[in-house]
Structures are given as C-alpha cells and as structure tokens.
Amino acid sequence: MVEQLPLNVRLKDSESFDTYFPAQNGAVIHALKQVSVGQGDSQLFIWGGKQSGKTHLLHAACNEAAKAGRSALLLKSEDLLSYGPEVFEGLEQINLVCIDDLHKLITSDTWEKALFNFINTLRQHEGTLLLTADANPGELSVQLPDLKSRLEWGAVFQLQPLQDEEKIQALQVRAAYRGFDLPDEVGSYLFRRYPRDLEYLMHVLEALDVASLAAQRRLTVPFIKKVLD
C-alpha cells in the first residue's frame, strides 16, 4: 500500500525547527527533536488552534529524521480519507509516521478501529508516531475507548499561540532564513496593513523578498508601501 500512495505532501525545507519561532513552546520543540531521531517517547500528540504551526512542526520533524537517516512520512487526514482504512497497511515499515489533523480522520467506527490497529502495529515495529489535532485526546469525539487510551500513550502537548509581538519575531526568523533583514518598523507596518494571520503574512514576506531582490533595495516602510500599493 505504501508504494500506491501518491502522497502529495512534499516536505518543505523552509519548515524546519530553525525557522519555527518557539516562544512559549520550547518544551514541544525539544521533545520533537528527540523523537525525530528516535530518542525519547515513541509517540507524541500535539494539539492547538489554527495557525499554531502544527503542520510546520511535522515537516520539521520529518526533515530532521531524514538528516538522521530515518525514513519518515507525513500524512494529511483529508488525503487518507480519499483512500480506505487499508491505507495503513505497510506503514509500520516507516521509522517516523506523522498524521496531521487527526480530528478530521475520526469519522466512523471503521476508521477508529483501523487507527487503533495501526498504532499497535507501529509500536510493535518500534516505529515513532506524531499526531496533531485541534483538541487534546480527551476532547476528541472518539467513540472507541481503546483508541482514546492509545492516543494518550505518549506525551501530550498544547501549542501556545503567539502574541502579536512574537508573530513579528517569527517573521524576522523566516526573513533571516531567506537571507534578509526585517526591521521592527517594517514588521509593525505589515501588522497594521494586513490581517494578523501568520500564514498570510509569510506569503506577503515572500513577495516582498522577491521585490526587494529585483529592485536591489532593502526592506523599508517607504519601499514596501510602494510595492504593496
């Protein structure tokens, strides 16, 4: 079944631990780094709201595992639903399996049983499992008691949302990764000009990077006003 999965989830090199601004989530990052290379817990459950960076962290974990020579697979729940529960067959061969947005996968008894069996099988093969959802395991609408207990096998972390000033710092971390400087006044201007949605602002940042390279100009408020207008 592994060979049959088209798996449209391409690992993003830009979504690494280095480009994730941890703020109050340092303990989560530490645990994920250990798990990625086969140390620490064999299962982690991470939950948080929209734009909390759950998918970013799964990409980072897979990239880290690949550097350590481990096989890794990132699965989005909506993609799994387009197949059948048999999609899990053979995935226990993978060292690190990440399932994003688990709450979207819990739709029926059939899927719950398939997930329960997969968690057991992966553990028997000494694989590592990372799960993300929009709520903690106890608040998910899981009907199968045994599955609910399996979801709590490892450590459970809640991602703390970034405050506005921390979002600006997160933009600056991404800018530094791309090789340019984002002054505080430019970050503040973007927050006044656009919705404070971090993913959206990251796209704006990428567009500004392209514009500044083309114009051979530093990012200043007058320059981005000209570009954005």
Description:
- The structure is a single chain.
- Helices cover 45% and strands 11% of the residues.
- The chain has 229 residues and is α/β, with parallel strands linked by helices.
- It has 2 domains: 2-158, P-loop containing nucleotide triphosphate hydrolases (Rossmann fold, 3-Layer(aba) Sandwich), CATH 3.40.50.300; 164-228.
- Strands 2-3-4-1-5 form a 5-stranded parallel beta sheet, sandwiched between helices.
- Helix 6 packs parallel to helix 8.
- The protein is elongated.
- The model is unreliable at 1-11 (pLDDT under 50).
Structural class: alpha/beta
What composes the largest sheet?
Answer: 5 strands, parallel
Q: Can you tell me the CATH architecture of the largest domain?
A: 3-Layer(aba) Sandwich
Here the CATH topology of the largest domain equals Rossmann fold
**Domain unit count:** 2
Radius of gyration: 19 Å
What is the number of beta strands? 5
Helix count equals 9
What is the ordering of alpha helices and beta strands? HEHEHEHEHEHHHH
Mean pLDDT: 89
Low-confidence stretches: 1-11
* CATH structural class of the largest domain: Alpha Beta
The percent range for strand residues is 5-15%
Strand order of the largest sheet: 2-3-4-1-5
The name of the CATH superfamily of the largest domain reads P-loop containing nucleotide triphosphate hydrolases
End-to-end CA span: 50 Å
Helix content: 40-55%
Shape: elongated
